[in-house]
């Protein structure tokens, strides 16, 4: 399968090879921990800031990779599209599957990390929700990547602002802060609760870090957002199939 064959393509020429899939996000977490916990003191009053931070940073990579790299999906499959006639949506779906394959070893390492690192988060029955949460956000990733791939194929200049959007979403999704820190700003809290990225991370932290049963309303909301984004992404790409083919043939 194309997804499996290219799953580790981005790191095949490095000395550490596949180990970078695990090492890189933990190095990022270490840097952010130093800045936000040691320097800025965000960890004060937090029962397990290390686990909170690591789960947030590592899990958000599934979203950010599908947003940041979707702009290159059509370019990478240009020769395939020129040779065979098939729905371009399948390229995006295969790419999302590839990001999930890439993510599996990092997920395992993350779970071992929160178990071994004080104050420790041990496996419970709530951990059975973990694969469901990651699968629930998969249609969101496919839809989001479809929109980005379509827009950047038709308007290449857009790829230069995708990174800014991704970075803003990263900081707005509660990677370093909790929603309780904005208790005095209820309107801002309401806006944060509408962010699918925050809801996704909050569900994961509830079951992994805090051993809480995830809130049903957040599950439902994330599911609606995920299916909605999938439908929008499919529609946008389907309506622009012909325009994309012309743009890719230049």
From TrEMBL:
List the subcellular locations: Cell inner membrane; Cell membrane
- What membrane topology does the annotation report for this chain? Multi-pass membrane protein
Write out the coiled-coil annotation as residue ranges: none
Q: Which residues form the signal peptide?
A: none
Task: Please name one Pfam family that this protein belongs to.
Answer: ABC2_membrane
Keywords (alphabetical) are: Cell inner membrane, Cell membrane, Membrane, Transmembrane, Transmembrane helix, Transport
Q: Which InterPro entries match?
A: ABC2_TM, ABC2_TM_bact-type
Locate the ABC transmembrane type-2 domain: which residues?
A: 16-240
Where does the sequence pass through the membrane? 21-43, 49-68, 89-116, 128-151, 158-179, 219-238
Q: Which family does it belong to?
A: Belongs to the ABC-2 integral membrane protein family.
What PANTHER family has UniProt attached to this entry? Answer: INNER MEMBRANE TRANSPORT PERMEASE (PTHR30413), TRANSPORT PERMEASE PROTEIN (PTHR30413:SF8)
Per its record, how is this protein called by name?
Transport permease protein
Q: What is the lineage of its organism?
A: Bacteria, Bacillati, Actinomycetota, Actinomycetes, Actinomycetales
